[in-house]
Amino acid sequence: MKQPEKIRILKELLRQVEHGVNVDAGVLLKNPTESYVCPEQATREWQLFFREQPQLIGLSGDLPQPGSYLTLDDFGVPILATRDAEGVFRAFLNACRHRGTTLVEESRGAAKRFTCPFHGWTYRADGQLHGVTQAHDFGEIERSCLALIELPAQERDGFLWVHPQPGGDIDLDAMLGELSEELGEWHVGDRVFSGATTLEKAMNWKLANDTFGETYHFARLHRNTLNNIFHSDALCYDAFGRNHRFVFPSKGIGSLRKKPESQWSTEGVTTVLYYLFPNIQITIAERQITLFRIYPVPGQHGRSRTVVSHYFSTEALQHIAAGTKTVIAANNVYDPGARDGNAVIAPEAAMEIVNSTLEKEDYMMGERTQRNIEAGLLPHLIFGRNEPALHHFHNTFRAELGMPALETFS
Fold first, then answer.
1. Residue 281 CA: distances (Å) to CA of 166, 173, 273, 290
2. Same domain, yes or no, for 216 and 359?
3. Does the reported pTM lie above 0.85?
4. What mean pLDDT is predicted for residues 157-183?
5. Backbone φ and ψ of 365, nearest 5°
6. Torsion-angle region of residue 280: left (phi > 0), alpha (psi -120 to 50) or beta?
7. In this predicted model, what pLDDT tens digit does every residue of 212-260 receive, in sequence order?
8. Exposed (0-12), middle (13-18) or buried (19+): which is 317, by Cβ within 10 Å?
9. Residue 177: inside a domain
10. Residue that terminates a domain, selected from 101, 128, 162
11. Which pLDDT tens digit goes with each residue over 113-139?
């Protein structure tokens, strides 16, 4: 993010905090609860958003060196992602070409060859068939025609994208628009993968996304956790086509007034969160990144799965390894009282804070909301003027489905 944009955002947050005001979308909207329980809509969403569009599967740190691999099955196509001997990111259907069984069961690791557990056929990291067990008995085949089924894959600015269909197109310029350059400025490919957690919950995938749509709830729901660190009811929000950026301040943001604007930084005084259509939420800071990938559970409109992945800078990990004082805080926000400017949050503490807060507070509310919606008596939910990210998220996916925009609540 360029300095003039940082200054604009930080000035707006300081204005809100100092005047006790919040972001203002101008209107209130009604969101029909049918959107969270309609099986037909859920089927359309699954097909259009997850089977027919490129998917962000992780960051470059998930495949740190040639021979690294990653497996996942979050959007209906079992994926084997590799970094081949030349360092190229590739993606394949995780299925042996002999009898179609799963080739790799482990979630991640490193290997020069992948051996099918059923009959022992082996493949290279570039997908080529390397060996056929007892080939003289099996019969004559053209090995070059039996490589793993390759899927379109693109690595750019540290992000790993895969299209679920072999003939699919990945047009990141069209997908990310004006946000593309800014995301590249974060150099996310330098971060080291440090762990992941999967949360499967009894709520629609859109309710899981709604959790990330406002700070209005901080002072109430998170009064003993995030509210100790962040200002509730303050937000700088900007939409970029189908995507958006969402920045909220920590309670140390007032310290910026003691510095010239040329030295202002979002680091340590804000959390910067990006939403990437349709299902990605990602907090990005210099030392820590948390990636949230939110998926429906196909055939179950009232269930969703969130994969939470954590990445840290090499610098942060070196500080921790050297015994530098660690501070228990969230999303790269440091204890304002810490005298050591190098104080950072230990990875295990950061992961526990994010995971437990999300699961035990936010997602608990989401599951309760889903239950109440399923009762069939709530006609709609209300999105306030201070919840513009919710306005944008729901109107964006509705437009993609050919549905009318949300109506004004009055």
1. 26, 19, 7, 8
2. yes
3. yes
4. 96
5. -65, -40
6. beta
7. 999 999 888 888 888 888 998 999 999 999 999 999 999 999 999 999 9
8. middle
9. no
10. 162
11. 999 999 999 999 999 999 999 999 999
The whole-angstrom separation of Cα 29 and Cα 213 is: 14
Distance CA 33, CA 195 (A): 35
Q: Model confidence over 323-370: pLDDT tens digits?
A: 655 544 444 443 333 333 444 567 777 778 788 889 999 999 999 999
Query: What type of residue is 195?
Result: G
Peptide bond into 78 cis (omega under 30): no
294-297-303 Cα angle (round to 5): 85
CB 250 within 8 A of CB 7: no
Residue-number span of the structural domain to which 44 is assigned: 3-52+182-408
The CATH number assigned to the domain holding 110 equals: 2.102.10.10
- What are the C-alpha distances in Å from 19 to residues 98, 185, 374? 67, 32, 40
Other beta carbons within 10 angstroms of residue 100's beta carbon come to 11
Angle at 217 between CA 216 and CA 220, to 5 degrees: 125
Helix (H/G/I), strand (E/B), else coil: 176:
helix
Over its C-alpha atoms, the chain yields an Rg (Å, rounded) of 23
Helices (H) then strands (E): counts for the chain: 12, 21
**Can you read off the two tokens belonging to residue 346?**
């230990």
Token pair 């790799």: residue: 104
Give the C-alpha separation, 125 to 109, whole Å.
12
Owner of token pair 């002999």: 98
HEC readout, 147-211: CCCEECEEEECCEEEECCCCCCCCCHHHHHCCHHHHHHCCCHHHCEEEEEEEEEECCCHHHHHHC
